Amino acid sequence: MWNFVSERWDQILFAAYQHLSLVVQCLLLATVLAVLIAVLTVRIPWLAGLANSVSAIGLTIPSFALIGLMISPLGFGPLPSVVVVTFFATLPILRNALVGLGGVPAETIEAARGLGMSRLRTLATVELPMAWPVIMSGIRISGQMVMGVAAVAAYVLGPGLGSFIFNGLARLGGANALNSVLVGVIGVVILALILDLALVGLSRLTIRRGIRV
After folding, report:
1. d(CA 76, CA 78)
2. Nearest to 92 by CA among 44, 143, 126
3. How does 118-145 read in b/e, with b if 16+ C-beta sit within 10 Å?
4. What is the phi-psi region of residue 175: left when phi exceeds 0, alpha when psi lies from -120 to 50, beta otherwise?
């Protein structure tokens, strides 16, 4: 195992960088999409219910099946990987964004509007800051979940540590096959821990002390 890692250290580091980069970029995109959808739907009960239902149903879709379906319209490479990882990343964040924004007291919003704030300013300075702890929890959940989904992206030649896992599985019983799988799996776990620690730090920086959960 040690020889396998030392001989391929540069490849492993580069694959780990690609894996983490894919997940972080998709998380950023998913956060923007989820918050935007939540803002547009949270005050309309049937739309909020529909968004919640879609997020719940979406989580039941097997990631391997979905990424396989992306081959026909999107081909191989980073694009189908980004689409699938972003899709799964959006779901937990959307649910938490709906809960967070829906939990902002109507009296608080009315008071802000009574002070002369516009709808957009109220959203930016009152609603989103109050909902942000719940949204941030969704981002952390999403980050852990899609770290594994990103590994499946190797099936369509996506970037990341999944290539070590799939290469090893394809050669099970052969030389270094198990080592390859272990490197991929352990690498994904380590990246998940690093990302979660980073998100905990981001939470402390972006959440007001009085409303931390």
Report:
1. 7
2. 143
3. eeeebbeebbbebbbbbbbbbbbbbbeb
4. beta
Question: Would you give the distance in Å from CA 183 to the centre of its chain?
Answer: 22
Q: How far apart are CA 164 and CA 52, in angstroms?
A: 36
Predicted TM-score of the model (pTM)? 0.90
d(CA 52, CA 170): 38
CA distances 24 to 11, 41, 86, 89, Å, are 20, 26, 10, 10
Residue 193, C-beta contacts closer than 8 angstroms, at least 6 positions apart? none
3-state secondary structure of 171: coil
Domain ranges of the chain: 9-211
> What architecture is the 9-211 domain classified under in CATH?
Orthogonal Bundle (1.10)
Per-residue confidence (pLDDT) for residue 209, from 0 to 100: 67
Q: Provide the H-helix boundaries in the chain.
A: 2-7, 9-41, 45-58, 63-69, 71-74, 78-102, 106-114, 119-122, 128-152, 162-170, 177-206
Neighbours of 65 (CB within 10 A): 9
Provide the mean pLDDT of the chain. 89
Nearest 5°: CA angle at 38, between 33 and 42?
165
- Would you state the pLDDT for residue 212? 55
Q: How far is CA 139 from CA 38, 77, 131, 146, 210, in A?
A: 14, 25, 13, 10, 20
